[in-house]
Hints:
The chain has 444 residues and is of the alpha+beta class.
Amino acid sequence: MASPSPPVSLDKANTTFCLDLLKQLSEEDKTANIFFSPFSISSALAMVMLGAGGNTASQISEVLCFTEKQQPPAPGEIVSEKPSAMRSQMNTRLQMQTQIQQSTRLPKYLLEVFSGCSQCLKNRNSEDDVHAKFSKLLETLNNPDVPYNLSVANRLYGEQTFQFLEGFLAGTKKHYNAELESLDFNSNAEEARVKINSWVEKKTQDKIKDLLASGVVDSATVLVLVNAIYFKGNWDQQFEEDSTIDADFRLNKNDTKPVKMMRQKSKFSFATIPEANCKILEMPYEGKDLSMFIILPNDIEDDTTGLEKLEKELTYEKFVEWTHPDLMGQTEIEVRLPRFKMEETYDMNDVLKSMGIVDAFDLTKSDFSGMSPATNLVLSKVVHKAFLEVNEEGTEAAAATAAVISERFIMIPEVFIADHPFLFFILHKTEKSVLFVGRFCSPV
């Protein structure tokens, strides 16, 4: 029997999932622009997990990186006989934690995780902890007393004739502030779709329109879970519009497109990463709780965007190290950054399946026993849509998801010229939470 996976901190889980999803989308199209809110997708799927059981819950938890994936040793593989002293201490603490967790009374739907030896036991305490941490994070993000506009909203839309368990509704309301609104999907799915889209549009300041396309919900729909996130912030140091010039943006080694290149010279946190052949710039927003971190390769060295090697090698550990204040030194630097807009829509079903969420979409395997006494529930559609505008004043971004320490910088350059493809992350620094991530490869 496999032992329980140790819980992962929410900031590590969300960032790891963010990078996993970025790599998955990058593999599907190596030259496309990418923009999404990992936080929006994670919180929407976490609400789904709240009503899931057995292997369905385990797969969602592992893909969202709330728990470590169990990697049993291959047949004949010899496990290291002599762990280090530090590893021994960690193992002892984990064993004690496991004993405490296993002594707690578990609900029936979690005990079903024992359906096979390759599945791990998820204890109720660690799962509740995930949702409690989301609740705390949502409360922080929705703080009105900040110099930027950031709001996150969750909502449930249920078929008016369908029975949902009170525990599930209480949990989504408690942890995600998601109220249930009854709609008539059965006989008027189109009217229900329009109403959901209208709510999303309102919550994202009219930036996310038609989240649910025609036909996404129908008479068989029983529940739609929606997360909407909106952000608008001014740069802590704004660009002067008079300084913006016409310039060429290099798509690859051969092709270019015209852009409006914003320019300013000021003090920014900056670092070069020699082993990754790239540099990182932090551009804080007013209030400095949130920043955009831009990771720019020194040049285009592959046959596509110049980002392939960076995308493959970027891990949670490297991201934390590279963006750490002790690595990034303040220096006077001229920044050149394109003015740009992005709007992306993703049908997440195949992406999530390829990442490991399989049973939730399979009627013969799905387990949503924590959501309803019905045994025929299945996750039919997960849709994500995101919008971004970066200009001289700052950034406006919105997204919505529906589920149907050593110094390393060497010579500081005088300019940071983002005239070729780059990655960017909008990070809430105090919560260490990535709200938005993008890959800018081509001006629209």
